[in-house]
Amino acid sequence: MKRIFLVEDDQAIARNLQRLLHAEGFAVTHAPTREAACAALSQNRFDLALVDIALPDGNGFAVCTEIKEAQSIPVIFLTASADEPSVVTGLNMGADDYVTKPFRPRELVARIGAALRKNSRAAYTVGGLQVDPASGIVRKDGAEVCLSALEYRLLLVFLNNPNSILTRTRLLEELWDAAGEFVNDNTLTVYIKRLREKIEDDPADPRLIRTVRGTGYRLGGGDAP
Predict the structure, then answer these.
(1) What value, to the nearest 5°, has the Cα angle with vertex 112 and ends 107 and 102?
(2) pLDDT in tens, 176-220
(3) Most exposed: 27, 38, 98, 222, by fewest CB within 10 Å?
């Protein structure tokens, strides 16, 4: 489970964000001030930080610097200020993204996912499959597997959610974020089939991308297709 560090002084916004992120399968640690953020940072390891710029005892720019010095994780600024100097300052300080309030929940989740994927450099090994996100190379039993962009993106969605059941709606949203074309339910079925044909020992009896009947798919486990 990915761990999100939320630095936000507005309690209503923080509660809504925590509900949203928990529903998406993230663990969330909330700090309402710079002081609380520093304390939490020294005691926990995180995968990504969401940082408000205006804090009661300082600013998010300083918190971003402290986060980057302590842990090599993506930082996304959340702020009501969309002026260009603030955006440039935040990005120049090493922030990975900048989201203005009010924001659309699904867009924020997509940006979090993109930042986590960009930051991920660890290779995945599942059964006889090896995936190196740094190079984008996929190998099966040592031999390179040629995947299309959307097949590769679909595979990464499963690898980034190893213990989760992914609904077809969730998969469609993930592919829509990555594709510059319309992806519908029938298209998803085609991509699942093509991906299985390339990475499974027996596509008719898949062991890597399994169907969970009436719900969706998961990486390993689940019901037979």
Answers:
(1) 40
(2) 644 445 678 888 999 999 999 999 999 999 999 999 998 899 998
(3) 27
User: Does residue 223 contact residue 212 with C-beta atoms inside 8 Å?
Assistant: yes
Q: Token digits for 155?
A: 């595979």
Q: Which residues of 91-125 are buried (b: 16+ CB within 10 A; e: fewer)?
A: eeeebbbbbeeeeeeeebbbbbbbbbbeebeeebe
Question: How many other β-carbons are positioned within 10 Å of the β-carbon of residue 36?
Answer: 16
Nearest Cα neighbor of 157 from 101, 109, 107 is: 109
Burial of 84 (0-12, 13-18, 19+ CB in 10 A): exposed
Rounded Cα distance between 206 and 141, Å, is 16
Q: Where do we find the tokens 């205006």?
A: 54
Say if CB 23 and CB 2 are below 8 A apart: no
AA identity, residue 55: L
The model's pTM: 0.55
pLDDT in tens, 140-155: 988 999 998 888 889 9
Q: 124 pairs with which residues across the strands?
A: 131
Q: Distance between CA 57 and CA 218 in Å, rounded?
A: 44
Cβ neighbours of 80 (radius 10 Å): 12
